[in-house]
Amino acid sequence: MRRWDFTQNLFSRTMRKQLKTRTMTDLLTALEWRYATKSFNSSVRLTDLQLDVLKKAVQLSVSSFGLQPYKVFIIDSQEVKSAIMEAAYGQKQIGEASHVFVFAHQRQYQSKEVEDLIVKLAENQGRKVEELQPYQQSIDSWMGAMSDEKLETWMSSQVHIAMNNLLLAAATLGIDSCPMGGFDIEKVDDILGLKSEGLKSCLIVPVGVRNDKDIYANYPKTRKSISELFEVR
Amino acid sequence: MRRWDFTQNLFSRTMRKQLKTRTMTDLLTALEWRYATKSFNSSVRLTDLQLDVLKKAVQLSVSSFGLQPYKVFIIDSQEVKSAIMEAAYGQKQIGEASHVFVFAHQRQYQSKEVEDLIVKLAENQGRKVEELQPYQQSIDSWMGAMSDEKLETWMSSQVHIAMNNLLLAAATLGIDSCPMGGFDIEKVDDILGLKSEGLKSCLIVPVGVRNDKDIYANYPKTRKSISELFEVR
């Protein structure tokens, strides 16, 4: 199992003390620990409690205007996993994993969702719905002005945030995962009956426990360097 | 300051014990603690070490094929912050925050980036570059087949993952943030000279410490319910 190497790294014990927190080191440790798992131990099943934590983390995801324009299917049935595996060009992680999360976004902007959001916001903020109507109108006009292509980009982006919450929450629990974007969208939509629900599949994430023999667990991470990624202005 | 209410919630102390970990509780606590900060305390400046941790978390982000098709500008100059604030319709968080992260994605697919990735992968996996050529070709053909619109969706989605790593890392350190997608992209591109670098601004995230008077910190979170979001199959 790969471990964060404090001797080789920016985050020495001294620095951890300076930060006066263990939490961040834990998240960084989790980020280092996780990898795109190529093979799962199919005999290990996640507990309901572990799944509850993963769901809670996805639920708390940030989204544009708070709209959360998606639904998440948790595949438990081996038969459905097999069908999705086939639609994902036979990638075996899907068949082996304890559970498979399928993230689907809405096909169209639904102003009814903004109405529902405004009602909830008013309740949470102790305000009248009428007070929030200018805000409702501004969301409606912002969203309504989007072309189909921009809307698809917006929807996909929101799903990727939620998916990332799943990956990070899983990693901090020592649960393995593998985000997958390469699959036959129409086939997955057919398998889950998404089109009639106004949804379109976007990402598949098998979760479970890695197979000890998965060699990919041992490779160092391949990432752009800090200097390639960042520039101060 | 809003706190995770264990008595009202799924995640009781007993459940935490069952999970045999504090880590996840910490991430959920952080997710509950954070909110889209509407007002920052402009007198508090993040330390270099805090910024290093945030950068490290962004660097470790998951991305499709590991390509990380983006660059992140950390705005420290008050003058540049003011210009960006104006391009973001005057949203004052940008001027008040300690630092402002601007995420920009590539404008076009660059096969040179895949070449670089393959060289790094070969090194990290102890393999010859030639062995990875079929993989390189498959990425190249997958990416090359994308329409401009699909590419934009793909790029934006990758940026949203990295941005989410920033938000979560910040929250676990008790650093506040506010993700913003509503701004004049062309103006921000002009301010930072992004077009000539082949980049396009996508997201702005002011980070720092909340203003104690920001009333938004006290509102309960507004999210879809678990039953609205999830379905088991």
UniProtKB/TrEMBL annotation, chains A, B:
<feature type="domain" description="Nitroreductase">
    <location>
        <begin position="32"/>
        <end position="208"/>
    </location>
</feature>
<dbReference type="InterPro" id="IPR029479">
    <property type="entry name" value="Nitroreductase"/>
</dbReference>
<keyword id="KW-0285">Flavoprotein</keyword>
<dbReference type="GO" id="GO:0016491">
    <property type="term" value="F:oxidoreductase activity"/>
</dbReference>
<dbReference type="InterPro" id="IPR033878">
    <property type="entry name" value="NfsB-like"/>
</dbReference>
<keyword id="KW-0288">FMN</keyword>
<comment type="similarity">
    <text>Belongs to the nitroreductase family.</text>
</comment>
<keyword id="KW-0560">Oxidoreductase</keyword>
<keyword id="KW-0521">NADP</keyword>
<dbReference type="InterPro" id="IPR000415">
    <property type="entry name" value="Nitroreductase-like"/>
</dbReference>
<dbReference type="Pfam" id="PF00881">
    <property type="entry name" value="Nitroreductase"/>
</dbReference>
<protein>
    <submittedName>
        <fullName>NAD(P)H-dependent oxidoreductase</fullName>
    </submittedName>
</protein>
